[in-house]
Amino acid sequence: MDGIFSRTELLLGSEAMERLAHSRVAVFGIGGVGGHAAEALARSGVGALDLIDRDKVAPSNINRQIIALHSTVGLYKTDAAAARIADINPACRVVKHTVFFLPETKEEFDFSQYDYVVDAIDTVSGKLAIIECANAAGIPVISAMGAGNKLDPSRFETADIYETSVCPLARVMRTECRKRGIKRLKVVYSKEKPLEPKAFDEETGKPVPASAAFVPSVMGLLIAGEVIKDLANGKGKAE
Fold this sequence. Notes:
Blueprint: H1 6-12, H2 14-21, E1 24-28, H3 32-43, E2 48-52, H4 77-88, E3 93-97, E4 116-119, H5 124-137, E5 141-144, E6 156-160, H6 168-179, E7 186-190, H7 216-232
Parallel strand pairs: 1-2, 1-4, 2-3, 4-5, 5-7
Antiparallel strand pairs: 6-7
Helix pairs in contact: 1-2, 3-4, 3-7
């Protein structure tokens, strides 16, 4: 067996690979977490990917984002990711949305097209809008909680949002999900207490999030693994 997905097929079987090939997954946020998730999905045989991000690759991204290279600095992250995916699996259909997903831009997206949704963005309002849109369309969604200011990738867990603890972002999301009547949400989070920030933005006074190569990458791969296993087992979009 020498096909590009032959080793994956040995694990999952031909029927599961066929499901993956006919699946369309939307990845919101193509940064340290989302970039690794999107690439792992492409390397696993997912047939179509929507990539949503408005940022460009910056030099400060090179320490942790798989799409960030000296050759890609200045490119839109969606363009950099799409180019990598085309080189991995030319048959994968990529749709780029070079836009920030916010409650104000959600009408630009038809969630019913997707079989699964990955939320890897930073803003609480955007995350909640993604979750609400996915739930309304009957589409499974998995959400990334906080990965910044952490050093222990072994502490990541997959859980329902209401089973989380320690993570500050998860605490906010629990409260907001409860207010909105969101009964369940699969997330990847860490019980590691975030380190104290060492730098602050001069304009906003907010802490500058710190991150290492080996933390957001692990979260992204865990998220991709959950998506692949669910899709392979027929737990994608509700028919």
